[in-house]
Design goal:
343 residues; 6-stranded parallel beta sheet; 12 helices; disordered C terminus; HTH_LacI; Lambda_DNA-bd_dom_sf; DNA-binding; transcription
C-alpha cells in the first residue's frame, strides 16, 4: 500500500509538505500542490481520515440522525445531505434514533468526539438540551426550530393552509386529520394551520400515527366514526394504508371520501399518483442542512444561528372533489396536473 512517505519521495518534497498540500493547500505553492496531487494520483495514494483529522482538527465525518429508515419521507432528505457532504469531501454517517430523545442524546454523546457536526431531522430532545448541544458541537435541526440552533424547516404548515382552503372551496365542512408522528413540533403547526384555513369546518384530529402503512389501516375506524367527507393525512404512507382499508370496505375516493396528504412521494412510487398532496423539497432541505453544518464546522466562531424555511407546492388532484358529487368529478387520470405554489 502506498504511504505518504512514498508520495513525498516521488514528488521530491518532505512528508510534511505532502500533508499540507492534501489538507491545507493554501500553505503551499500552486506548483507544489499540483505536483503532489499528480504524484498521489499516479501512485494511488489515499489520504487517511485520521491523518487529516490530526492535520486539520476535523474528522471529515458528519452525523445525520433520523427517527427511522423505514419512513420514505426521509429518503430524499438523506440523498440530498449525502450529495452535499460528498461534494465537500466529507462522509455522512446516518444514525437512527427511533424517535427517542434519550437515544438522540446518547448518540450525540457517543459521536461528539468523532464527527465534525450533527444534523437531526425532527429531533425529539427538549429544546434546552438541543441548545446546550449546539454550544458544544455544530448542530443543525431539520423540521424543528429551536432558539440558539440553526435550522432548515420545510413549510408543510403553510402548505396545510393552502390545502385547507382547497377543501373549503370544494365545500367540505367535516374533515378528519390523521396526525403524527408522536411529539412532532411540526405536526402541531400543521393542525393549527388547517384549522385556521377552515374556520367554519369541524376538524376531527386523531393520532399520533407512526409513518407506517398499518397505521393507516388502523386509522380507518376513527375516520369512519368522525362522519367526515374528507381526510388529510400527514404522511402518504399512512394515507395509503387508509386507502387500502377503504378499498376493502368497498369505498372509493373521492366518491365516498376525499383524500389528501402533506407529503407527495408519488415520484418514488410510494403514493397513488392522483392523490392531492403537497410537494416537499426534501433533497434541497438535506443539502442545505449539510451546507450549513459544514459552515459551522469550518468557523472558529459559531455566530448567530441561521434559520431557513422552504416552501411547498400544492398539487390538487383527482382524490379531492365536492362532497357527494361522485368519483367522476375529480381530475381524470392522465389530465395535466395543476400545481401552484403555496405562499
Amino acid at each position: 500500500m502506498t504511504r505518504l512517505d512514498d508520495v513525498a519521495r516521488e514528488a521530491g518534497v518532505s512528508a510534511s509538505t505532502v500533508s499540507r498540500a492534501l489538507t491545507r493547500p493554501g500553505m503551499v505553492s500552486e506548483a507544489t500542490r499540483s505536483r503532489v496531487l499528480a504524484t498521489a494520483e499516479r501512485l494511488g495514494y489515499r489520504h487517511h481520515p485520521a491523518a487529516r483529522a490530526l492535520a486539520t482538527g476535523r474528522a471529515g465525518l458528519l452525523a445525520f440522525a433520523v427517527a427511522s429508515l423505514a419512513n420514505p419521507f426521509h429518503a430524499p432528505i438523506i440523498a440530498g445531505a449525502q450529495e452535499a457532504a460528498e461534494e465537500a469531501g466529507s462522509e455522512l454517517i446516518v444514525v437512527v434514533t427511533d424517535g427517542s430523545a434519550a437515544r438522540e442524546e446518547a448518540l450525540f454523546e457517543r459521536l461528539a468526539d468523532r464527527v465534525d457536526g450533527f444534523a437531526a431531522v425532527g429531533p425529539a430532545a427538549p429544546a434546552a438540551r438541543l441548545a446546550e448541544a449546539a454550544r458544544r458541537l455544530p448542530l443543525v435541526t431539520l423540521n424543528r426550530r429551536v432558539r440558539g440552533v440553526s435550522s432548515v424547516v420545510i413549510d408543510t404548515p403553510g402548505g396545510m393552509a393552502g390545502l385547507g382552503a382547497h377543501l373549503a372551496a370544494l365545500g367540505h365542512a367535516r374533515v378528519a386529520y390523521l396526525g403524527g408522528p408522536e411529539g412532532s413540533w411540526l405536526d402541531r403547526r400543521r393542525l393549527r394551520e388547517l384549522r385556521r384555513a377552515m374556520p367554519d369546518a369541524e376538524i376531527a384530529a386523531s393520532g399520533p400515527y407512526p409513518p407506517e402503512f398499518d397505521a393507516g389501516t388502523r386509522a380507518f375506524d376513527a375516520v369512519a366514526a368522525s362522519g367526515c367527507t374528507a381526510v388529510v393525512a400527514y404522511s402518504s404512507t399512512v394515507l395509503l394504508g387508509l386507502l387500502h382499508r377503504m378499498t376493502m370496505k368497498g369505498l372509493r375516493a373521492p366518491g365516498d371520501l376525499s383524500l389528501a396528504c402533506a407529503d407527495d412521494l408519488s415520484a418514488a412510487g410510494l403514493a397513488m399518483p392522483d392523490v392531492t398532496a403537497l410537494r416537499v423539497p426534501g433533497a434541497e432541505a438535506g443539502r442545505l442542512a449539510v451546507e450549513r453544518l459544514l459552515d459551522l464546522a469550518r468557523s472558529s466562531r459559531p455566530g448567530t444561528p441561521a434559520h431557513q424555511t422552504l416552501g411547498v407546492t400544492l398539487l390538487p388532484r383527482a382524490s379531492t372533489a365536492a362532497p357527494g358529487r361522485g368519483a367522476g368529478t375529480g381530475r381524470r387520470r392522465g389530465d395535466r396536473e395543476r400545481a401552484r405554489p403555496v405562499e
